[in-house]
Every structure is written in structure tokens, then in C-alpha cells.
């Protein structure tokens, strides 16, 4: 099972294409000849990328700015794709941010926004486009989970739970889709050097050994290769990343939680008086 070949009026919809991993995934898909539909909130960034990809690869590019945590904006996005006659044959759910502080000191509305973007929007877009892919017998879904979804993370609880949701949702979907011509791949990066560091401020990342960090280009390349081979899950970034984070998937919570508590100690204390 491979990524479908580009076809007339087909498009690869990439969310969170204005930065980081999403931008590199859009570049990788355009380099393979796919028309791309670029989605995020910062329209100007998307326009810049669209002209770069059209110039370099001669592919059709559509820019559809949207706040994907808003259900009405997702409706608007889907209606606009339909109006333009575009068929989503590759869907990349990548847009995201994370909250790195203890839940009791976090903002309720922001926690909800995180779930709406990381969970609700993924289910919504998969729900809109997977049935058509199955009907046509071709298509690929890449959902950005994270090694954060391998265990509960105190100080980052809603994010790690959301990424765990994306991982299970995608792996179950992968199994259901066998024999349909459609594939679903959960992409689980470890720490990646992107704007995520400034936007979400995960303090633990600075303490991670250099060996387990990687760039967004490598993540995108390995993610697309995994989708091309119809893989269920990929931990991009090389052997060190897989060795460092992989075992957390099977570690019991009674062992994983005390370790996670130490790793996330600064996030847990964030906002404490005197911290
Ligand atoms: N960086 C890491 O260490 C790491 C590790 C594992 C997994 N991940 C996951 O990988 C994905 C990409 O992360 P990244 O590192 O590339 O982060 P990034 O550089 O901060 O990019 C995040 C992207 O998401 C978009 N976005 C954020 N909120 C949005 C919203 N409400 N509606 C639409 N788009 C929105 C941003 O665009 P606008 O601001 O223009 O809307 C941006 O394009 C995320 O799902 C993240 O959780 C990241």
C-alpha cells in the first residue's frame, strides 16, 4: 500500500502547514507531484509557501486559512474544498500546540482549545475524508501523534492524553482500512526543533540529549516514507529516538509516572508562587 499517485483534482490537505513539520510535509508532498491544500491560521505564511511550491514543483496549491479548533471554520474549509472541486486523497492532520503546566494552574478554555484542535479536528477531518477514500479505493492519512502519547505526562496531561488518543484512533483506523486501498499512519516524533518550542514552551526539551532531537525535514521525510510503505506507526528521528522513547509505550504507569514526574518537574511547578 502506498501514497496514492497524484491525480487530476486530487489534493493533499496539510494542516499546520505554516511552520515546522507541516511545512516540511507539504514540501515533501509537492516534491512528489501532489497538489497541496495548505491550512493554518497565518495566511501570509501559507501564501509564501504556496508560491514556493508552485514555482519549484509546478503543482496546484490552494491556501485555505482556518482556525481548526473552531467547528464552524472546519465546515467552511470543507465547503470551500468542495466548491473548488478538490478531492482530498492525502490527509495530513498535523496542526497542534501543547500546554506544559499543571492542570490546576492551567486555563480551562485553553485546555479545551487544545482538545478541540488535537482531538476533535482530527476526528472531524478523518470523518469527512476517509469514507470517500474508501469508496474510491485510494487514499492516505497521516496523523501527527507524539512520543508524548506513549505514557501519561504530569505537567502536560491533556496534551499527552490527546496524542495518545490520536495514536489509538489512527492505529485502529489502520487496521480497519486493511484491504480497502487506503492507509492510515500515526507519526510519533520525539523532540523536534520547530516553533513549537516558542509557542508551547516545553521546558523539558532543553534537557533532552542532542542525540534524541531532530529537525522537521527528517520527520517529514520519514513520515512520508512510512505512509508510502503503508506502515501503521512510525517514530521518526533515527535509532536513538526509537531506543529512548519506544519502551515507554509498554512501561506500566506505576513505573512510567515517577520518571515522567522527574522529567516534567519544571512544567509541574510552572506558575507556583516563587517557582
Ligand atoms: N515539535 C515537537 O517537538 C513535536 C514532537 C512531537 C509531535 N509534535 C506534533 O507535531 C505537530 C506539528 O508540530 P510542530 O513542531 O511543527 O509545531 P509548530 O512549528 O509550532 O507548528 C504548528 C502548526 O500548527 C498550526 N496551528 C496551531 N494552532 C492552529 C489552529 N488553531 N488552527 C490551525 N492551525 C493551527 C500552526 O499555524 P498557525 O499558528 O499559523 O495557525 C503551525 O502551522 C503538532 O501536532 C505537534 O503536537 C511536535
CATH architecture: 3-Layer(aba) Sandwich
Q: Strand order within the widest sheet?
A: 3-2-1-4-5-6-7
What fraction of residues sit in β-strands? 5-15%
Which molecules are bound in this entry?
A: NADP nicotinamide-adenine-dinucleotide phosphate
Mean pLDDT: 97
Specify the CATH class: Alpha Beta
Distance separating the two termini? 51 Å
CATH topology: Rossmann fold
Query: What order do the helices and strands follow?
Result: EHEHEHEHEHEHHEHHH
Percent range for helical residues?
40-55%
What would you call the quaternary organization? single chain
Low-pLDDT runs: none
Compute the CA-based radius of gyration. 18 Å
Count of distinct strands = 7
Supply the number of helical segments: 10
Biggest sheet layout = 7 strands, parallel
Q: Which class best fits the helix and strand makeup?
A: alpha/beta
Spatial shape = globular
How would you describe this structure in keywords?
single chain, 275 residues, alpha/beta, seven-stranded parallel sheet, 10 helices, 47% helix, 12% strand
Compile the SSE list and pairings.
Layout: E1 10-15, H1 20-31, E2 36-39, H2 43-57, E3 61-63, H3 71-83, E4 87-93, H4 108-136, E5 139-144, H5 157-176, E6 182-187, H6 196-200, H7 216-228, E7 233-234, H8 239-245, H9 253-263, H10 265-269
Question: What can you see in these coordinates?
Answer:
- It is a single chain.
- The chain has 275 residues and is an alpha/beta fold.
- The protein has one domain (10-269): 3-Layer(aba) Sandwich (Rossmann fold).
- The protein has ten helices and seven strands.
- The chain has helices spanning 20-31, 43-57, 71-83, 108-136, 157-176, 196-200, 216-228, 239-245, 253-263, 265-269, and strands at residues 10-15, 36-39, 61-63, 87-93, 139-144, 182-187, 233-234.
- Strands 3-2-1-4-5-6-7 form a seven-stranded parallel beta sheet, sandwiched between helices.
- Helix 1 packs across helix 7.
- The longest helix has 29 residues, at 108-136.
- The protein is globular, with a radius of gyration of 18 Å.
- The mean pLDDT is 97.
- Residues 15-22, 40-42, 45, 67-69, 94-98, 117, 144, 146, 189, 191-192, 194-196, 199, 216 line the site of NADP nicotinamide-adenine-dinucleotide phosphate.
- NADP nicotinamide-adenine-dinucleotide phosphate (NAP) is lined by residues 15-22, 40-42, 45, 67-69, 94-98, 117, 144, 146, 189, 191-192, 194-196, 199, 216.
Amino acid at each position: 500500500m502506498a501514497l496514492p499517485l497524484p491525480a487530476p483534482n486530487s489534493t493533499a490537505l496539510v494542516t499546520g502547514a505554516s511552520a515546522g513539520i507541516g511545512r516540511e510535509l507539504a514540501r515533501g508532498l509537492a516534491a512528489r507531484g501532489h497538489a497541496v491544500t495548505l491550512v493554518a491560521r497565518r495566511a501570509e505564511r501559507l501564501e509564501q509557501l504556496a508560491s514556493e511550491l508552485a514555482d519549484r514543483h509546478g503543482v496546484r496549491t490552494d491556501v485555505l486559512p482556518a482556525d481548526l479548533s473552531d467547528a464552524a471554520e472546519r465546515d467552511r474549509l470543507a465547503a470551500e474544498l468542495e466548491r473548488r472541486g478538490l478531492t482530498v486523497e492525502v490527509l495530513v492532520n498535523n496542526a497542534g500546540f501543547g500546554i506544559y503546566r499543571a492542570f490546576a494552574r492551567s486555563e480551562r478554555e485553553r485546555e479545551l482549545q487544545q482538545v478541540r484542535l488535537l482531538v476533535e479536528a482530527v476526528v472531524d477531518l478523518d470523518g469527512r475524508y476517509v469514507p470517500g477514500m474508501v469508496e474510491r479505493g485510494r487514499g492516505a492519512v497521516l496523523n501527527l501523534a507524539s512520543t508524548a502519547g506513549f505514557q501519561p505526562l504530569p505537567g502536560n496531561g491533556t496534551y499527552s492524553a490527546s496524542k495518545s488518543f490520536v495514536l489509538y484512533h489512527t492505529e485502529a483506523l489502520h487496521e480497519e482500512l486493511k484491504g480497502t486501498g487506503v492507509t492510515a499512519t500515526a507519526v510519533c516524533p520525539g523532540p523536534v526543533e520547530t516553533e513549537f518550542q516558542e509557542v508551547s514552551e516545553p521546558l523539558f526539551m532543553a534537557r533532552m540529549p542532542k542525540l534524541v532531537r531532530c529537525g522537521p525535514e527528517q520527520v517529514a521525510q520519514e513520515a512520508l516514507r512510512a505512509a508510502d510503505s503503508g506502515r501503521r506507526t512510525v517514530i521518526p528521528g533515527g535509532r536513538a529516538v526509537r531506543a529512548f522513547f519506544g519502551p515507554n509505550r509498554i512501561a506500566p504507569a506505576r513505573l512510567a509516572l515517577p520518571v515522567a514526574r522527574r522529567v516534567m518537574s519544571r512544567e509541574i511547578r510552572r506558575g507556583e508562587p516563587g517557582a
